Amino acid sequence: MSEEMKKKVQEIENTISNKEEATKVLGLVTELIDMFATKVVEVKEGQVKLEEKVEDVFELLSNIEEEMIENFNNEYEAQCPYCGEIIPFKIPEEDEDFECPMCGKVIEMELLFGDDDCDCGSCHECGGCGHDHDEDDED
Predict the structure, then answer these.
(1) How many domains does the chain have?
(2) Are 111 and 92 in contact (CB under 8 A)?
(3) Average pLDDT of the residues in 15-21
(4) Under a CB-based contact definition with an 8 Å cutoff, are residues 81 and 129 in contact?
(5) Which end of the chain is more exposed for a tag (fewer CB within 10 A), N or C?
(6) Mean pLDDT on 63-70
(7) Handedness of CA 105, 109, 113, 115 (dihedral sign)
(8) Model-level pTM?
(9) Are residues 7 and 66 in the same domain?
């Protein structure tokens, strides 16, 4: 026990005139300190577990980021919404479009991945697929 703690125990014993009561109070204080110390240890153990989980999450996020960057640089293929040719492309930077190497028209990324109005695979609002959609709707 530290010198400071010994002084506090002595102060409690001197404050309570009845020796029996002083012993009882000191016993209760000791129990409280033990309970508090146990809770502090539990909190520290919980903190260690939480830090391990956070490390796992950061590692997972790092792996996802690496995979996304790797995939970002990959070449893909898609059908040109204007001429219908299958063309290779890399995902462009944000708000960047590219030209179809076959027909030379500028292609917006939304045209490659947007929802088609029909099942032809190259349809867009501009009518790039060449289908008569009124006829298709009647089928």
Answers:
(1) 2
(2) no
(3) 87
(4) yes
(5) C
(6) 83
(7) negative
(8) 0.41
(9) yes
- Amino acid identity for residue 108 in this structure: E
Alpha carbon separation from 67 to 58, 75, 113 (Å, rounded): 14, 14, 21
How far apart (Å, rounded) are the C-alpha atoms in residues 112 and 19? Answer: 88
- φ/ψ (deg, to 5) at 103: -105, -15
Which amino acid, residue 131?
Answer: H
Chosen domain end from 13, 47, 71: 71
Chain center to CA of 75: 26
Per-residue pLDDT at 139 exceeds 90: no
Write phi, then psi, for 102 (nearest 5 degrees): -90, -55
**25 shares its domain with 64:** yes
If you search the block for the tokens 């002083």, which residue do you land on?
A: 22
Determine the 3-state secondary structure of 85 from DSSP.
coil
Do 93 and 116 belong to one domain?
yes
Neighbours of 129 (CB within 10 A): 20
